[in-house]
Amino acid sequence: MALKKKPVTGMKDILPAEMAIRDYVIGLIKETYASFGFSSMETPCVEHIENLCSKQGGENEKLIFKILKRGEKLKIAEAQTENDLVDGGLRYDLTVPLCRYYANHANELPSPFKALQMGSVWRADRPQRGRFRQFMQCDIDILGEPTILAEIELILATTTLLGKLDFSQFTIRINDRRILKAMASFSGFDQKDFDTVFIILDKMDKIGLEGVEEELLKEGFAQEAVSRYLTMFREVTPDTSGVSYLREKLAGYLDEQYADDLMTIMESVDAVKEADFKIAFDPTLVRGMSYYTGPIFEISMDEFGGSVGGGGRYDEMIGKFTGKDVCACGFSIGFERIVMLLLEKGFTVPGSAGKIAFLVEKGMEKDKLLTVFAEAAKERKKGVSVNIAMMKKNKKFQKEQLAAEGFQEFREFFIDRM
């Protein structure tokens, strides 16, 4: 059987030019989030299949790369269901592993615990622009903080990072799952139908109000309920006034404190932000994960044409492991999409001391070659990156290749000139 040189579908090899940007972004992420008090931690890439299939991951649970039992535990002939064959899976996000981690180590961790976790995740998804089956995720979470201080800190930390990467004029869209539920209940939808209603609502940006109305009616919902529901979306504005409008409109269905908290988050972030962006109320924002319990948010960038990150509050998820709920809130940036946008913009890594290529003529004697190594060592002590390579016949092409890797200076060493 012939070996295949291309990577598996939905995964990719990373060339040095992209790797340099990835390494820079990872360093900037750690530096920026550390300045906000987040501590790095790590979990295994393989999780118990029971944890991954706990109905917390929404549609992602359909995309798990499952792992067969090993050795004597794998009894294919006796298996009657998939559960008889599988006991683990590759993680599809970092939130489920974080909750297990916290449940296992809570007594060893500070409270609140501000966690930074970066690592690869896997989803058996359909590959497309900016989406792979293996990709890096970058999450910050605050566990054990019940107040909106968590939401404000998460949004400020994430937007500060994006500002340092020269992203501007993006939008943080924000909503609250409790507002979503109050709007549906006020309109006359039964609680058992909320998930269906929200799945259709989530298509608003693609099919518009008319499309949402058509699909809701097609599902058999009453015209009166649908009309009452969509009227609110026509009247609400994408700012704190819109939140205030719903606070009054949904009296008796929505705790006023939830609306007040959402307005405080928006006003606080807007008052002290360090990056150039807008924060907008979006009552159509749903986010697919069923574990969200309060405020939810996403990063929208016009240049990408979609979301490049998101998160929210999930106060009930850790309790699935411990039997006792712990307040939790997190924000994840789409690392792969951010890197893709930087590559498309021609981003170059700033702040380096320089890169020099030493081109050495073939056949050079040992003593002269040692002189080249000594000179390279002096430059490296200054923080300069030095690449020593044998000179090729096509020197012009060799320099072009090195220049593409970021080498700005070339020094040539000939046998008869040393």
Task: Write up this protein.
Helix 13 (366-381) links the parallel strand 12 and strand 13 (385-390). The longest helix has 20 residues, at 16-35. The chain has 418 residues and is an alpha/beta fold. The chain has helices at residues 16-35, 49-52, 95-105, 149-164, 177-187, 194-201, 204-218, 223-235, 240-249, 256-272, 319-322, 335-344, 366-381, 395-404; strands at residues 39-40, 46-48, 66-68, 86-90, 113-122, 134-143, 170-176, 277-281, 295-301, 306-313, 328-333, 355-360, 385-390, 409-413. The chain contains 14 helices and 14 strands. Helix 4 (149-164) packs parallel to helix 10 (256-272) and helix 5 packs across helix 8 (223-235). The model has no long low-confidence stretch (mean pLDDT 91). 39% of the residues lie in helices and 20% in strands.
Main pleated sheet: 8 strands, mixed
Total beta strand runs: 14
Cα end-to-end separation: 53 Å
- Structure classification: alpha/beta
Name the average pLDDT: 91
Order of strands, main sheet, comes to 1-5-6-11-10-9-7-8
Structure annotation, total helices: 14
Q: Gyration radius, to the nearest Å? A: 27 Å
